[in-house]
Amino acid sequence: MLPVRKLVLAVVAATACLSPAAAQDYPSRSVKIIVPFGAGGPADVYARFLGAHLQDALKQSFVVENRPGAGAIIGTGEVAKSAPDGYTLLMMSNTHTVNETLIASKPFNLMRDFVPVAPVNYSDLVMVVHPSVPAKDLKEFITLLKSKPGDLNYASSGPGTPYHMAGELFKAMSETNIVHVPHRGSGEARNNTIGGHVQMMFDAVTTMAENVKAGQVRALGTSGAVRSAVLPDVPTIGEAGLPGYDATIWLGVMAPAGTPKAIVDQLNAEINKALSKAETKAAWAKQGAAPIIMTPAEFDKYLRGDIDKWAKLIQTAGIKAQ
Length: 322
Fold this sequence. Notes:
Layout: H1 2-25, E1 31-35, H2 42-58, E2 62-66, H3 73-80, E3 88-93, H4 94-102, H5 110-113, E4 114-129, H6 138-147, E5 153-156, H7 162-174, E6 179-182, H8 186-194, E7 200-204, H9 205-213, E8 218-222, H10 237-240, E9 248-256, H11 261-276, H12 278-287, E10 289-291, H13 296-317
Parallel strand pairs: 1-2, 1-3, 5-6, 5-7
Antiparallel strand pairs: 3-9, 4-7, 4-8, 4-9, 4-10
Helix pairs in contact: 1-11, 2-11, 4-13
C-alpha cells in the first residue's frame, strides 16, 4: 500500500506545482467564451465586453461563441465536457441556478462540473405587452387575464431563464393563467413580442428599453424594488399592483471543474478590474446594469444560495419546464 500512497502523493504534489506555472503561461493561445444563449441578449453583449477587456489585458484573443438551445443546456453541456485548462469559459446566468431544480435530466451538475470564476452584473427586467393588448396598466392586464384564462401568451428565451421565472412568479402572485411560449433565445422572443405574435414578455431593461421608448411595446412595470433609472416613468411591478414582486437577471463566468486555481484567480482578478473601472460603471448605469464584484469563493456561496432560493419557489409553486 505504501508505494501506491507515495504515488498518489506525488501526483497531488505535481498537480499543485502545475497551477502557478499554468497561470504564468496562461493564456498562450485563443480562449473561447461559450454563451449558451442567442446573439443580442444580455449574456452575449456582456460576454463580448469581457472578451475585449481580457484580450487587451492578457494579449490573447477571447472569442465569443453562441450555443443557444434547450434553456442554456446545450451550450453549457459543451463547456462541461471541455478540458479544464482555462481555454473554454462559460458565460452563465441565473438560468443555470434555476435549472438545477427545474430540469432534472441535464448532462451536468452546475456545482459539481463547474468552478465559479466571477459574477459580472445584474439588471432589472421590464414587463411589456404588445400595443394591441387593450390593457394600459398592470391592474388592467391582470383583469384581462382573469377574464380570459389561458387565452393570452408570454414569451421567454427558454425554460429556466430569468424571463420564464419572472413570468411564473407573476402568474403565481397575480393568480392568473397566461401560457408560457419558450423560444430559442431572447432575440427571437423579443421579436415575436414586438411583432404581436405573443402578447407579453419579461425582458432585460438593458435590451428592451429602446423598444419601449420607440413605442414598439408598452411597459407595464419593472421588476426591481425601485424604479429603473433607464425607464424612470415606468412604475415597479410592486407599485403597479403586485407588492413584493422582485426579479432580476444576473450574469457570471464559470469554467470546467478542475481548472487550476491560479488560472481561476487570474481571470477573477482581470474581470474585477474591468468591472471596477469608473467608465464601466457609468456606461452600464445608462443601460440599467450594475457590476457585481466577488472573489471565486464569494461567488460560490452566492451560487449555492441562489440555487436554494429558486428550488423553494419551483417546488412551492409547482413550476414546470414547459
